[in-house]
Structures are given as structure tokens and as C-alpha cells.
Amino acid sequence: MQPDVVVIGGGTVGAAIAYGLAARRQRVLLLDGDDGDFRAARANFGLVWLQGKGMNMPAYQQLTRSSVALWPDFVAELTETTGIGLTYEQNGGLAFCLGEDEFEKRKLQLQRLHNQLAGEDADWEMLDRAALSKLLPKVQWGPEVAGASFGRLDGHVNPLKLLGALHAGLVRRGGAIRSGATVREIRRDGEGLRVSFGNEQVTAPKLVIAAGLGSQALARQVGLDVPVRPQRGQILVTERLAPFLPLPASGLRQTGEGTVMIGATQEEAGYDVSTTGEAAAKLSRKTIRLVPALADVALVRQWAGLRIMTPDSYPIYAQSPSHPGAFVALCHSGVTLAAVHAAGLAEAIAAGSLPASLDPFHQRRFDVPKAA
């Protein structure tokens, strides 16, 4: 296959873009790395989340809102194409508050964010302890729990099934995936952009760099300087329990299999993906403050992964002026933004130019002159 587009990076971000391009009749080659790569999906909580996102960057709130609105149709199409159920639910989500001060702080934070979005209806509400107990009658809350914020549009999905379905959907739509394809070099040639990996080369008119933490070095080869750093996130998983938590929460989610995911830490630990007893103890203590009954539950797994973080935590979308046809896509909310990546972003890349609506996400926002 002679590709129209080569996508570097087979994680959730790259796979969603590749799937969306293939749906638009583009011939797509997805180059996936090897098992030793630092994959953000390893520490993914599976939230499809809107509440609280976009503080001081309304464009990110709007982008997230657009993606969340696309998710139901996105799931339906992906499931129909692949036959893979994603266990997606959109019944709302919670952010718990320990103590009245934390409850008021959360309320003010969400109100401030809402005020930045003139004309938008509020998609959240604050629930006091009584309202929270009424909403989740099977949970016995710890004495410090003052309530929670409730995001009406929030939801969750199985992130591993999502990634598998995106790969399968890409192939079903005529695309190809090469595993173990670590890219060595990107160069311009007379036919487009030549990508070298292993002992092979492929040339295409368009190229998307969505390789997570590996994107910085690759982007330099197409004249783009994208600042990115790793942030470690550790997650705990309990044994299977009878259903008691039907809604996902920031830091606590019961899966369809009955296990409870607890997390995740936010640690500046470089590229260290080891797990620590300190993190396990910290996560466990907070969880027991929320739901004391979980103190008697067995933990069956702990793992860590690296998030892709920019200086302000928001995505980077850019196209290269020196290498026409080359694009970069970076973010740490690959699950939430998967729907818009497979829709609007893929459509723009297929057309050959990013829209003005993505200008706020260009890395030039970090080019602030230093004071003399």
C-alpha cells in the first residue's frame, strides 16, 4: 500500500487520528513502537471527562465539550465497525470533596471556569453530603466527606478496549499497522515526506507525529519545537466487588468487571515507571477517608505509566511550515479527546490544514520573551 498519510504513534491519540483518516478514505499506515516504549495508556483511568477542564484556556473547554458531545455517535460507529463493545457509559461523574473548605473551593473553581464561558449552560452542580448519599445509597461515606461536584456530561470507558477497537477499525477501513516500527529519521524528498524505520522506508504526502513522549525528538526533524515532559501516574486496583459505585469519580472508579481503580498520582519522576510503596499508601489513605469499608478490600495490582505533559498541561496541535504536510498532535487526555481527534482533527489533516479554532494550541504560546 502506498499511503496518503503516515501516523507515527499507535497509542490512543495516534490511533484515533488514523482511524478518522481511514474513515475519510485516506490510505493510512500507522507505525507503532515496541513494548518498551513509554505508553500513557498504561496508566489511563478511562474517564471521558468535561467538568473542571479548561481553566484559563476556554478553547480547551470548548474542544473537550465538542469531543464529549461526539462520543455517543463515535462509540456507536466504532462498535458497529469492529464488533467490540467499549463498555462506555455517560451517566455523569463525581469529584469528591473532603471537608467544607474543599467543597467551597471546588464550587468557586467551577463557577470561575463557567464565567469564562459566556453563554454556556452549566453542566455541573454541587451535591452536599445528603444529596450524594441519596445519589449513591450503597456507599457509606467517611465522616470527612462534605459532598462532591457532579458533572452531568461525564462518563467512562474501558481504555484498553477503546485502543483495541481503534486499531481494529483502522484495519477494517483499509489502513495498515506496523508494530515494532521505531522511527529513525524523517526527511523531505521530491515525493513528500520520507520516514525511515528499522531497515525500511516509506514516503507519503502527509505525516502525523503522535508519538507521545517520543514526539519531541521527531518533531525537531520537521522543524517544530514542542516542549513536553513525562509525569508519572500510579494506579491501584482492588479485587472484584459487588456493584456499589455506578458513577465514575476523579480518583475512584468501579469497572464493569467489579474491580475498583484507585488513582492516580501526579509525580515528577522523569522516565521512572517503577511503582512505590509510598504512592500505594497515599492513594489508600485517601480512599479510606472517602469510603472506609474499602480498608478491608484486597489490592491485586499496582502499576505506573507516564503522562504526556506540556508546560501548561494543554494539548499541542501544529503543522510544520518547513515540511509541508507534517503535523504534530500531543495531549494527555487522549481518551476524552478521541472522538474529536477521529472527527474534526482527522478531517483537517486530510484537507491539509489545521483550522483557526486550533490556533490556541500551537506551541508558539510558550514563546514568551524573557525579561532583560
UniProtKB/TrEMBL annotation:
<dbReference type="Pfam" id="PF01266">
    <property type="entry name" value="DAO"/>
</dbReference>
<dbReference type="InterPro" id="IPR006076">
    <property type="entry name" value="FAD-dep_OxRdtase"/>
</dbReference>
<keyword id="KW-0560">Oxidoreductase</keyword>
<protein>
    <submittedName>
        <fullName>FAD-dependent oxidoreductase</fullName>
    </submittedName>
</protein>
<dbReference type="InterPro" id="IPR036188">
    <property type="entry name" value="FAD/NAD-bd_sf"/>
</dbReference>
<dbReference type="GO" id="GO:0005737">
    <property type="term" value="C:cytoplasm"/>
</dbReference>
<dbReference type="GO" id="GO:0016491">
    <property type="term" value="F:oxidoreductase activity"/>
</dbReference>
<feature type="domain" description="FAD dependent oxidoreductase">
    <location>
        <begin position="4"/>
        <end position="347"/>
    </location>
</feature>
